[in-house]
Amino acid sequence: MLELEDLRVAYGEILALRGITLRVGEGEIVALLGNNGAGKTTTLKTISGLLRPAGGAIRLAGEPLAGVPPHAIAARGVAHVPEGRRVFARLSVEDNLALGAYARRGRGHADDLDRVFALFPHLRERRDQLAGTLSGGEQQMLAIARGLMSRPRILLLDEPSMGLAPLVVEQIFETIREINRGGTTVLLVEQNATMALEIAARAYVLEGGAIALQGSAQDLRADEGVRRAYLGAP
To answer: Whole-angstrom distance between the N-terminal and C-terminal Cα of the chain?
Structure first.
């Protein structure tokens, strides 16, 4: 479904992505792992059109995305849930969700609300509450739910567990599984490699803007270097 080929991205004179090639098949959860500064967030921002590549190709179902404006990329079925949640703090939960469906001009809006409220029952209870007054975990749920309101073909998730309590992290990851079981493809950027590799089919490890390792989640969990660097093994 999604393919990156020899993708290069620069911040001024600094090359942040140095020719990465990866693919995400339809219906998969694929994890993108790496330390801070490895290029994970840059990758997602480039896919969603927030950054322009210096070279290489991005394709969704064979159609090029490089150079396409962000709103048009979203309309093609790419939903980006950014690091740090980025909810509209002064709007209600329901208004945040309505903005997620804006590009669809309200078609099937009620059905989509029912779907995300089924996934996130806490949001139904707080539908009239200002988003800025929600807990961190609830704001993360809202950010994911807002992405789902666009009915994406692929969901780009950037650090969904950041700053959350362990119990909330488990809830978030179980919901990501449920979203995927419902037919949505997921590209997951995540510092919590243990949790990411539990739900992903495959994974890529970025180091210094290049892909250092790739393979099935099972194989990477067993890799000694991955275990030492990302899974807390001695």
So the answer is: 37
